[in-house]
Amino acid sequence: MIFDKTHFSEDLIDNKIETGLHIILTTDEDDSRPIYISGNFNDWRTQDKEFVMERVGTGLYHFKFKHDFPLPETVLYKFTKGDWSAVEIDANGERTENRSTNQHTGIQKEHVFRWRKNWLPFKQNFLPQIQLISDEFEIPQLNTTRKVWALLPHDYDNSTESYPVMYLQDAQNLFNENAKFGNWEIDKKLAVMSEYKVGKIIVIAVEHAEGGRIQEYNVGKTVLGKGLGKKYIKFLVETLKPYVDSNFRTKKEREFTGIGGSSMGALVSIFSGLRHPEVFGKLMIFSPSLWVTPKIKIKNKEGGSTKIYLYAGGDESETMIEHVETFKKRMLENDFVNDEMKINLSINKLGKHNETYWSDEFPKAIEWLFFNTKDN
């Protein structure tokens, strides 16, 4: 049934819809993306399928909390198009404060003027602190050195808080405006997330080996030849993580430690998680080069539950989606991920093999891996 935008609330009452709290939303900017309501009733999750609003007309949406839903005394909430990159903003493009109501029944009318687009605008004062740990960080396992960066929460110096850590490969492409192959812009995205009090995390970014990148991220003997990946993983586990834990306020346990990357960087991240599940409890795997080693050996995990965020684009290769779907299946069959809810497969049918699409996926992965307390 399609309701008139002006008289929607009256129509609801006239149709004697059962008791409960009804949220009626109108918006000036409407498109095909679903609208989610997130708040203190679902730990502010922005991708919660249980809280998708029903589209009942152009620019007109409805959501109903059932009469027996355990709402907080004061309900706090916001509207998004699926993540903080597309959260509601006011008519001037500014951040809106949390909406609130003490009603647990009846009708609550709301309006959204605009939606944040492409993570703009972001606030400079929420940008993470970017520190060059060293431009010649020693990698004794490979007898070489490398640039290693730390991205710290914007208020790190004014806080005593400890933070989860995500280790990312290919630092050259993560926050460099002049990156040759594109830029994930994780600094800007972490700024927006931080403004909304989610995503406070330390990111450790390791630059790749330029011409030696493929060999360094290649684990064992594969179609690419014999790789140095096992030694690189030892560096991450035996050298880099102890240094980071000693010099920054980190949450050291595996459930607060993640590793990730894209393409070959994703592949070496997979092996890092498989070989050291006692260290890495979160894996962020974007467009992994699974064709390199089609028969990955999966051992039963040790140390606790692992969460894996898998992403693939439909316009990357003929086999990309097939490979990641098979990988997900094998993870579940081998009990490496002991619950299907612990693995999130995100597929963009139009997605290409480049930084733009990995950039869009990054904040969604961080939020789901570290801040979706329902599944942690």
The third-level CATH topology of the largest domain is Rossmann fold
Structural class: alpha/beta
Question: What is the tally of beta strands?
Answer: 19
Kindly report how far apart the N and C termini lie: 38 Å
- The H/E string reads HEEEEEEEEEEEEHEHEEHEHEEHEH
Which segments are poorly predicted (pLDDT under 50) over 5 or more consecutive residues?
Answer: none
Level-2 CATH architecture of the largest domain: 3-Layer(aba) Sandwich
Q: Major sheet: size, sense and barrel closure? A: 8 strands, mixed
The first-level CATH class name of the largest domain = Alpha Beta
Strand order of the largest sheet: 10-11-13-12-16-17-18-19
User: What's the helix count?
Assistant: 7
Mean pLDDT: 89
Tally of distinct domains: 2
Description:
One of its GO terms (molecular function) is hydrolase activity. This is Alpha/beta hydrolase-fold protein. The chain is α/β, with parallel strands linked by helices and about 375 residues long. It folds into 2 domains: about 10-115, Immunoglobulin-like (Sandwich); about 125-370, Rossmann fold (3-Layer(aba) Sandwich), CATH 3.40.50. Helices cover about 20% and strands about 25% of the residues. It has 7 helices and 19 strands. The strands form 5 sheets. An 8-stranded mixed β-sheet has the order 10-11-13-12-16-17-18-19, sandwiched between helices. The protein has a 4-stranded mixed β-sheet with strand order 3-4-1-8, with no helix packed on it. The chain has a 3-stranded antiparallel β-sheet with strand order 2-5-7, with no helix packed on it. The longest helix has 19 residues, at about 230-245. It is globular, with a radius of gyration of 22 Å. The mean pLDDT is about 90.
